[in-house]
Amino acid sequence: MAGEEALQPLMFLLMYMLMKRRKDINSADVQRRNEIQRRIRHRQYFFQRQRRMLMILIARSTRCTCSYRTRAWTNIESTDWWERVVMKEFQPRDWLEKFRMSKDTFFFLCGKLKPRLTRQDTHFRLALPLEKRVAVALWRLATNVEYRTISALFGVGRSTVCKCVRDVCHAIVSLLKPLYLQRPSEQEMEDAARLFNTRWGFPHCVGAVDSLHVAIIAPSSNTADYWNSAGWLSVVLQGVVNGLGQFWDVCTGFPGSTEDASILQNSTLWAAASEGGLSPRAPRSFMGQSLGYLLLGDAAYPLQSWLLKCYPDSGPLTPRQRAFNYRLSRARSVIENAFLRLKARWQCLHKRNDCSLDLVPTMVLACCILHNVCEVHGDTFVEEWLEAVSQADCPQPSDAVPPSADDPEAEEVRSLFCDYFQQQLQQQQD
């Protein structure tokens, strides 16, 4: 007993030292964790500040590329950049470069979209001006830059930029499609056929049809459907243009793996043309036979009595067939040029579009309508814009339907045009 009582003070001292040691270790762990968290917060703050500075620099680095006297509008704060610089100091070249249209066309567009885009001020905040909402959307369509860059440039939130793009695209489709992208009437068909014959030397033709693949980010579902034959993700646009390169029929939203022939056969254009929608009430005579109006396509489409394409070059061609191929390829270049101008003016169709998949078809359709608006109003097209689309990172896919998909009766129509062009060639030689 006496020995145990003598050991008690030693036991208490040992327990005290062990508890103190554990407490010191725990305290050191807590301090170490606090220091790590402090450093993480400091690093996050540093990166956030660096990111904000980079966004401001990007916004302020937008410079006027005109040859006339440079104005120091790049240092203006983004909150009044729109009111004091764009609205008061922008020259005609600036409007074309930044918004892809003239100032007059811009305000004409705002007036047409006013019924859908006007917002009322509230007690909590002032509504974003109509012109600024349209400008935000056009900047996005023309440059395809990120939302945060546009946000810093116009002094609005990123969610506001996203909403402006969506609202303006839907308003363009809703209000301007009936005015600028409609199937021609019978009189307009006749005028279109006369224009095509005068401009491109191809009679009875009212348009050229082709497809354009628009690059997108990977969708959340059914990703495999959007891989096209060239090996990249896309949404397909099918368009028909007249002799001036203006769209009068557009079908978009099909996944990139869909063949051009399938898109055409599932479109309203196929249904209307198959039922005689391209034929005038009073039959037109051509080479002694009654013939309706027709479209020009490429090897991706099946030969029809209202849709002609070149003879395949897989074998030897007769002189009359070569003459036909030359005339058709020359006339069909109008839609190739139209797609080039469309992508050059609205580069969201040339670069990969990172918008949500549900908005992409509406955005593509809105760009086609805006293309027609600019063409009809005679806005200048800057040839330098073509440099951006001449070097395509993603080549367009090319499809070809087998000869079995062609309509045998359509060969008679194609043969008539071979005879017509052969006669013209002989007359020129004589």
UniProtKB/TrEMBL annotation:
Key word Ion transport present: no
Molecular function in Gene Ontology: hydrolase activity; metal ion binding; nuclease activity
Protein's UniProt name: DDE Tnp4 domain-containing protein
Xref: InterPro entries: HARBI1-like (IPR045249), HARBI1_dom (IPR027806)
Spans traversing the lipid bilayer: none
Places the protein is found: Nucleus
Family (UniProt): Belongs to the HARBI1 family.
Cofactor(s) this protein requires: a divalent metal cation
GO (cellular component) term, any one: nucleus
The keyword Nucleus is annotated on this UniProt entry: yes
Organism of provenance: Aldrovandia affinis
Ranges of residues in domain DDE Tnp4: 209-372
Keywords in alphabetical order: Hydrolase, Metal-binding, Nuclease, Nucleus
